[in-house]
Each structure stands twice: as structure tokens, then as C-alpha cells.
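Before a colleague's protein record goes any further, I have to sign it off. I want your independent view on whether this chain really folds as the C-alpha cells say. The record follows directly below this note.
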Amino acid sequence: MSNVHALNAAHAAIPRNEGHALELDWVDEIRVNLSAAERRVATLPGRRTVKKDAQAAWLLKAVTCIDLTTLNGDDTTERVRRLCAKAKAPVRRDLLEALGFGERVIHTGAICVYHRFVATAVEALRDTRIPVAAVSTGFPAGLVPHDVKLREIEASVKEGAGEIDIVITREHVLTGNWRALYREMQDFRAACGKAHVKAILATGDIKTMRNVAKASMVCMMAGADFIKTSTGKESVNATPLVTLVMLRMIRAYQERTGFKVGYKPAGGISAAKDVLTYQFLMKEELGREWLEPDLFRVGASSLLADIERQLEHHVTGRYSAFNRHALG
């Protein structure tokens, strides 16, 4: 099964976001009660904890939502192949058997790479249901010419990428040019064709929670399948506060249009306890359906090693060294 076909099968149960006409009155009305939002996320760890078998189950679910990522200047085809092998078997078989999941197929949500390695990843994941996601549009800064961005998207789709993670032009948000952001996002969506598009807002760069909320809404109006916090290259990446603001925009968009849009926090999520916080927020704000990989992804590289380490502790009562849980 090709990666694009695998992606389409995975998303078949959820109608794709077809977008909505740009309503500037709706965008202008968006407000964020910052103090209330900060109180909400501050109380989450104390109110919501899971232990033992329940925690192991939540962590295994998190594994299936990871976009296993390598976006380094020294990436090689061999590193990408090893990452793909890990995506196909992210948790050691002995741990799965001890947890009662020996007969289950567990894999990550996707592999995320630069365009240069899309073909390598597609070949390595052939005959699996794991899509390849390509970062695009001049990632991470997004400052290349618009026509170059569109050609990069089209090239990755042609190579077999089933998902495209685009970066928006931050200037459009910082200057309040919502029409320009809407048109840009529409063009990106069109260039993706059947591949699903994740809109990276670079929340650490666009400064305010109101900007985060408005940019989220405009990208969804323009047809984004997912909204994503960060490239992972900004000084501030995913946070629970940004997540709360974006999730509430997803809920408002669904209430108004009927379309469900996915969410992807990325950057700085390296500990198992942190991903649990994001899962709790997803469930409490949007519901159980948003804990599945067709509506929730986590962009991460080292997170998987800590999850596997925590699962080993649950099974054996002992913590192992991180180097026993290498990505490849």
C-alpha cells in the first residue's frame, strides 16, 4: 500500500476540512482571556494523573501519535532508514508482550523529514500504513519566494509524501494581514492535492496568544487539516498554554462549520510526563476522538526513547539507560 493510500485510509472515517470563506468579522471578534487560560493549564497536572497500567496504556497510545522526526543538517539516508525501522517497531516486542499487546501492531503516526529524504522514507515504509510527512515551504523560516514554496510541496507529494508540514509567513500574522495569510494557506492546500496539510504557526515567533488564536482560525478557514505549534527551531516551541488556545479555536471552528481539524504540538516534548499533559488537554477540551492519530500528532525525536524507558520501568520496576532505547 502506498503512503498516500495509507494516509487516505487512515483518515477515511473523518471528512476532510473543506475550509470556509474568510470572515474577517469572525477573526476580529476573537479574544483570549489570558489569566483564565493560564490558571487552567496551571491546575492540570494536579487534577489529572494516571498511574501503573493506566499510564502504560496512555503512553502506548501516545506512541501511535508520534511524528517521528529528524530535521538536522547532518541527516543521511542511512539515518532516515533507521528512523523508519524504529517507526515500524517503536516499542520492544518483549515489553509489548509483557503489557499484553504482543499480538497488536504498534507503529508511530508518521515519519517527518526534509524533502531530500522523502523518497528514502517512502521506500523504507513501503507496504506499511505509516505516512511520510515532509516539512516544506522553506522550512523553518518560510522566507523563500511563494512560487518556490508551491513547487517544493508539489515535489514532495510527487515523491510520495502523504502529509505536508508547511510554515506560514509570520509577517502576515504580525501585521494582521489575514487576507494574505488566508490566500497563502489556500495555495498550500491546493498544491498538496490529496496529501494532508499541517499548518505550522511558529507560535513562539508570533508573540501573543491573540495572534495564535487568530492565525489558527484563518488557517483552518483556508483548509488546513492540522494546525501545528512550531517548527522546533524557535526559541519557544509547544507549551500547554499555546495548546489550550489552539484547541479552543479547533472547537470553535468545528462548532461553526462541522469540520474536525487535527492538532500537533512540536518542539521540546521529550519526556513521557509531558506528552501525558497534552493528551489530557486534548481529551478534556475536544474529546476522546482527538486522542487518535488522525486528529492528534506529536512532533518529536527523543520522546519515544523516554516513553519506552517508562514502559520498561512499569514492566520490570527498574529504569534503564537511555542508550538502550536508541531511535535507530
Observations:
- The CA atoms of residues 80 and 121 lie 7 Å apart.
- The first helix runs from residue 3 to 10.
